Structure formats: C-alpha cells, structure tokens
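Good morning C.,

I know you're traveling, so I'll keep this short. The sequence:
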Amino acid sequence: MKLFCALALFAACLAAAINADLKRINTVYILPMGSGMDQFLANRLTTLGVFQVVTDPQKADALVTDRIGEAFQAKFDELYPPPLLPNQ
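The tokens, ready to paste straight into the viewer:
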C-alpha cells in the first residue's frame, strides 16, 4: 500500500512537471478515505512539501479523493454549490 502511495505521489509530481496548470495548485483538501488513507496522504504531502493540506475546502486549490461518481459529485456540489441563477 505504501509503495502504491509513493508511486501515486511520484506520478502526481511528474504530471505537475508536464502540465503547467498543476503548478498553480498549492493547497489541497483531502476528502475522507477508508483505512485512514486520508491521514496518511495528508502526512506525506505535507512532510514532503508537495502541497499544503487545508481543513477548509473553500481555501483549497484542489480536492483529493479516492472515489468518483455520483457520491463524489454530490459531495462536490455540497462543498461548492453552483451559483443561483437570477429569476427571469
């Protein structure tokens, strides 16, 4: 598991080197994950100085999660509600 995490972090750093937009990400909010993976990632990301982990999703440049799909979309919409459209 730790090898997988190390490889994932390496891949993220490599992607940041390739994609200039990723260089603008300084702070991340980590959504809860199973088996304490969120705590492990927070520790490793901050220890290695890759990103600053924040506890307020409104202050984050990016989200980190281990799941995608409807549950993630619902959580994303909860954290960042779409703007209300003015009455027409």
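Safe travels,
E.
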